Amino acid sequence: MDFGIRGRWAVVCAASQGLGKGCAIALAREGVNLVINSRRQETLDAVARELRALDPAIEVRSVAGDIGDPAIREAVLSACPQVDILINNNGGPPPGDFRDWNRDDWMAALDANMLAPIALIQACVDGMAERSFGRIVNITSSAVKAPIDVLGLSNGARSGLTGFVAGTSRQSSLASRNVTINNLLPGAFDTQRLRGGIDKAATNSGRTHDEVAQSRLAAIPAGRFGTPGEFGEVCAFLCSQQAAYLIGQNVLLDGGAYPGTF
């Protein structure tokens, strides 16, 4: 299926590995020009070369730095001739006990996982509406639907972004102008972050990596972890011409782990 977005320009945040890289790869295969961002320039440059190899006709630009920094956001946006597609993504805050968190911990989580994506949305949506095309996908977490007790910082910040999107995406000045905003909620995907979490849990529990991994797989009806590639393909669909009627939704991609009806 041709998604009808060849030649568009996309900004993809946290694109050097994992789910962000999966999204960048899927968009590159659709012929989308890219501005990619992550913290490390060397890693980002390697990904940029990989993306260009997928389609020599596309242009790929890289801007390194923390997307939570307003100056970096400005540099990312300045590198993009026009933002047709925005993929908001950032690493989540660390797990812990809410009794140990102070105001600085909360503000860091909010800056990274709520306020930074809102700032990018704010900077892009009016231009999208003027051009009668815009796709915004926020990579959040399955914990938005099924909160995890030790991820309180992430639960709070990402739920705040979810509430913001629920209202903003339905503004007629955007929705009627072919600008869509949706959230993509990953469950357990085979990424460096997941593997690191399994290693930590194994160390803390005295079990092996494989034992912890198998216990997590037992809770996933699909019987496996997701891949960044298939996550990226779903993201690319949300950015397609065909997804123009999909607005303000939380698309859960978790191999069936969430047991609820709604």
TrEMBL record:
* InterPro entries, per the entry: NAD(P)-bd_dom_sf, SDR, SDR_fam
Q: Which family does it belong to?
A: Belongs to the short-chain dehydrogenases/reductases (SDR) family.
Descriptive protein name: 3-oxoacyl-ACP reductase
Where does this protein come from, organism-wise?
Salinicola socius
